[in-house]
User: What shape does this take?
Amino acid sequence: MMKKPSPLAITLIILAVIAGALVALSGFYVDWLWFNSVGFTGVWSTVLTTKVALFVIAGLLTSFIISLNVYIAFRRRPFYVPTSIEADNLERYRATIDPIRKLAFAGIVLVLFYFGGTSATNLWSSWLLFRNSTEFGVQDPQFGLDISFFAFRLPFWQTLIGWGISTLILATLASAAVHYLYGGIRPQVPQERTTVAARVQLSVLLGLIVLLKAVAYYFDRFALALKESRLITGLTYTDVNATLPAKSILAAIAVICSLLFFANIVRKSWLLPAAGTALMVGASVLIAGVYPGAVQQFQVKPSESSKEAPYIQRNIDATRDAYGIAGVEMKDYQATVSTNSGQLANDAATIANIRLMDPNVLSATFRQLQQIKPYYSFPESLDIDRYTVNGVQRDAVVAVRELNIEGNPSRNWINDHLVYTHGFGFVSAFGNTVDADGKPNFLVGDLPPTTGLGKFQPRVYFGENVPDYSIIGGPKTDTPVEFDYPDDASANGQKNYTYTGKGGVPMGGLFKKLLFAIQYQEQRIVLSSLINSESKILYNRAPRDRVAKVAPWLTIDGDPYPAIVDGKIQWIIDGYTTSSGYPYSQTTALGTATTDALTTNSGAVTAQRNQNINYIRNSVKATVDAYDGTVVLYQWDEKDPVLKTWMKAFPNTVTPKSEMSKELLEHIRYPEDMFRVQRDVLSSYHVQTAAAFYGGQDFWRVPRDPSTFGANAGAQPPYYMTLEMPGSDKPTFTLTTPFVPRGGRENLSAFAVVDSNNGPNYGKITVLQLPRSTNVAGPSQVASNFEAKPEVANSLSLLRQGGSDVVLGNLLTLPVGGGLLYVQPVYVRATSNTAAYPLLQKVLVSFGDVIGFDSSLKGALDQVFGGNSGTSSSGAPVTSTTNNASDDLKSALQNARQALADGNAALAKGDFAAYGRAQDRLKAALAAAIAAEGRK
Assistant: This one.
């Protein structure tokens, strides 16, 4: 006889079950604790209840429909099966199955429930959009339906129809298998191959499948508005005149075919249903395949441009609306390539703000000058913002000094998670000035931080480079545990700190400690005496991840940026609402459209996943407090119907735009990923007539980034800068991009800017379109010209020798002087020293065919514009070195030599116009040299 289990064994079994359940549920509860700590439990509960409801409903329906049909097939099995060899073989299978029939049936029910429910949980977002649909107020031109039908309701209806068809097919196959196994289907019998029960059941199921197919044909008509074709997205001439009627005809045929299956309930022949099915298949091939192909071949192709013109125009109009580029202002810009003395006199505001500090080069410089200790770090790519200093708005390169535990020479669990818990400080440098050595001029820096931007909370507990978790806080004592920042005035060389913010999840008692010990597989969370009931644990700390978690319906911009707002370091993150259901709008692969040289080569900017979209809005501005982790979602686009729909689904999660503080609004900028998508679409859809679009001769593309070469070369990223557009009366903070023709040429076609300052013109895109007859060099051509100029090439070669290397900064394009000015900073970095960092040493300038190269921006500009560009360094921080009389004399003589050489070369070519311009530059340079000599 079997012995009863001992009390110890029972206890161990119970403990094992409890431990297994605790492990299984720990992640679930830890997730809820996090949502509770940030005040977004409504999001957690809404997503959870929606998934659970879909799981249960879909699981029950799938399991019920299939298992009910299996049960009916079994209950209606014949009690007498004619004798045959096949029947004898089936009898052996039945004898094997019958003893475990009930258990097998229960297993099938559970498996169907699980897989049916699991597949439905992924539809939580589709269901919420369907349920909370908000109208766009715009009607589709073909069907007269509001866009919301295509964006919110059509996808769910199609999914529901697909589920119904697949479930009924499985039910049919399962029922047929049971009928066959138990003799309801007898292929070997010459007559009455199916029993009445089998015929009736299969006829009903097949009739329902075909009837649902008729419904699918009906909804396929609307899906044509989202169909991708060779030419456009949406219905084409062939779709409207052939495919659309074909779908309606096929739907009617499918209804008739389903009635034939239902009629087979009282008839005893499968002939009519089979004939109906053959008719439907044949009609599908002929009406939906051959006929549209013939229309395309013989009606459309011979005169495609005129036949497709109305549908191309629909595509143009819908695409421009869906991507927010319908209001783009196109301006003809008669760009000159000639240079004259004083030509930039009217562009002093733009010249004064030319950004010489490249945020994608300066990370190493920031690390060497502001990292202070190896356990701090800066991101690989810094950010650009603007601050008002002494009443003047100045562009600034910004970053936070984040914690880098990898650089800590004393690594252990206590140091990694209890002592080194946060970064410290905000660092900012002016974008347009450096000191005499080429180092940035810091507006805010050092430890503790300077107060160039006022006082603020400098501690960074939530950032882009933080430990996966830290345990902080607790009762205040005379011996705080957390390392704050190095301090030579302290006895132990450092300041310590105890966290006092509201962020984090309270550790509480033993249960929570055990919970997190399981979550992070670390027993010291339970055993450490440094962790008490008042301690808190921080996790999910990256700003982008926090916003994505509380707003799973948003697409998050790849580059959060820090700003000092209301005495705090706030991470500002842009959120997008997207859709793939805007009819006639061109589909864009988000990952491809947002990929450029910066996202490819910088680990600091997160690339977007490659989802297909045809609608996008920057609907949300989010902030994450670097000290306490508070997440706030602000409704930025108050007209976006997609955002309104999500706000219905997740009430009280988005804060009205009116609650944004004035200081926060001063640091809002136009998001880069949004602009990348828009410029990708704009490269084709700046064309607004069907004829021009069909021809395609005027399409553009974004030029290759000239500062990257080889396999990693990508599209030039957009650049933030402050500039005054031609015709404007004041400079503004903008995001810019150039365009070149699509094809082999690299000359400039257009220059686009979007206003990034909060105000009535925020988000307004202006495009300066150059005449096709004007040959203005594009960025790649300018970069090539720089390297081809002997004086520049020789200087760069010298700088690249002797243990140093040249780093070329961002090549900026500026619409000034009636033309296009290119400015590129040149940095030099020692290669023999691992601690070396780039220093600004030279500036390259190009306007038309004239190139300037000098140690100061003013000197380079003066070389280009006849010795006097018309701008002054006085009061405008645009130079990279001090401008004393000796420097001015040296620069003037160099300009004179260059002008003389250019004049002789022009005279040898017989180019008297160029010779005249060179003589003007020579006179201006000599006058500047005389003036400089007089000041010595």
User: Anything to note?
Assistant: The longest strand covers residues 568-579. DSSP finds 28 helices and 31 strands in the chain. Residues 873-883 have pLDDT under 50 and may be disordered.
